[in-house]
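Researcher: Let's try something more involved. This one mixes different molecule types, so please make sure each is placed in the same coordinate frame as the others.
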Amino acid sequence: VSATDSITTVDGFNLEIAAGEIFGLAGVAGNGQSVLADAIAGAIALTEGEVSLDGEVLNRPGRRPRPDARVGYIPEQPLENAVAGDLDLIANMALTRVASLPFWLPRREEAAQTAVLMEKFDVRPRDPKRLARQLSGGNLQKLVIARELGKPCALVIACYPTMGLDIAASQAIREQLFRQAEAGAAVLWISEELDELLEHAHRVGVLFRGRLAGVTDTVTADRNEIGRWMGTGQ
Amino acid sequence: MKFLRSPFGLILTVTVAFFALTSGFFLISGQAPLALIGQMIIGAYGDGFAWSETLIKTTPILLCALAVALPARLGLISVGAEGQFHFGALTATGLMLLLIQSPAWILLPAVLLGAAVGGAIWGGLAGFLKARIGVNETICTLLLNYVGIALVEYVIHGPWKDPESANWPYAKPFPDAAVLPTFFGTRVHLGLVIGVVAAVVLHVLLNRTRWGLELRLLAGNRKAATRAGLPFALHVLIVMGIAGALAGLAGLGEASVIQGRLQSRLSSGFGLSGFLVAWLSGQDFLRMIPVAVLMGGLLTSADTLQLFASLPAASAIVLQGLLFVTVLAVPKLLGGSDA
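Model: All components are placed in one shared frame. Result:
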């Protein structure tokens, strides 16, 4: 996979994640993590290469950004990348599946569905009419997770999902990732916290200047080696 | 303070502040404020004739306000209603001249369509530049206003100048078959109905349909919405086209019913008034209808100022400005939300 936004570039990245596997991608922030996540999720176009899921192409050069119903994508900084702060939670819940809605919005059903997902993912306060920017950081992240993981997923991409959140919210979010993996989804978990990844992922890789510097399984992982990958890419 | 921040309190405070500022303006001009304000209200809403004059001015203001508010709902700031108004009047006049011998059932739909398409082209041009290469829509629509007005000046001084106009810069008058229908023996015309219906339809579309949701999401967070696959460029073209069509129809109303032909000074600043109405009503299509009637009344009462107080016609623009400043500033000064 190769992709570029205005600042960072990911080039020659090659990775396969099995169904039910949690793959932790470590690395110092700014090495192309969010571009990579966007590229895999189909939120930006590739310049080269291909992303495929179960043998079906998800993203390739020239494809228009379009979310796939089987992909749950939690981008970094939800207020900036995943929600419209001035709109209510019902509208924000519909963001990634607007195209599948009928022309006349089923407003009552949408509100009811939002309320159900908010209950299931414990988004507080339980008021679908509230504006997204009125939620706390943790609840906003839970809202995005409710939207993205409240459906059956074959692939989950989580970019710094617990960054800046309190312990309880972080734990709740991690559990959602475990649940997805148990249900058979391939999970790509991007994080700066190596301990978190070593504890919860099956394999860990390091992204260095847009390339995969190395991959190891978490049982036999050597921290010194991972540290070297993170620092020098070798 | 709590009462002042409630919606009713805000309206009351804004009204009082506006009348206070207006009174100050009249005092500086050497007039008795209360008597003059009373005359203005009578001049705008005092009898049937006053109402008809107010509604005549309301029509283009409402249509131009919609032409500003619709792009605003996508997060675009268009100031191009004036240019779309003129280009719509121009293309409608062109079709009228082409089909001048035709019966009303051909001519009337043709000029309506001509005005809408002309306005849509002018609005769509700015939309295309925005969508394609990211040209700032505010600057673009502002400058296209001058081009639109200049094109009208060109055709009425040149190729379309009526040979029977005694050398005045006019196009041929609209024949009766091409004049929009008027109501109750006044000059209040079909444009008002189009404006009100368009406001209601847009309100429903924006709030009840997928299209409206897409606009709201794109306006709310364009980055997140485009990443979710919503086509920003396409929506820019659509809203700028519809906006232009509405302003173009306003131009047709003025050219065909009010002035009777394409000529200089077709618009008395309706684009600006429409912009003010759109922002005063917080881009809410339904709220725009009464606000446009108020603005129409304000412009109509400018005649009263000229007749009774010998103030220049530009006083109406001063009053518009005072109203705009009051509505924008008072709620902020009170620390409340929007009016």
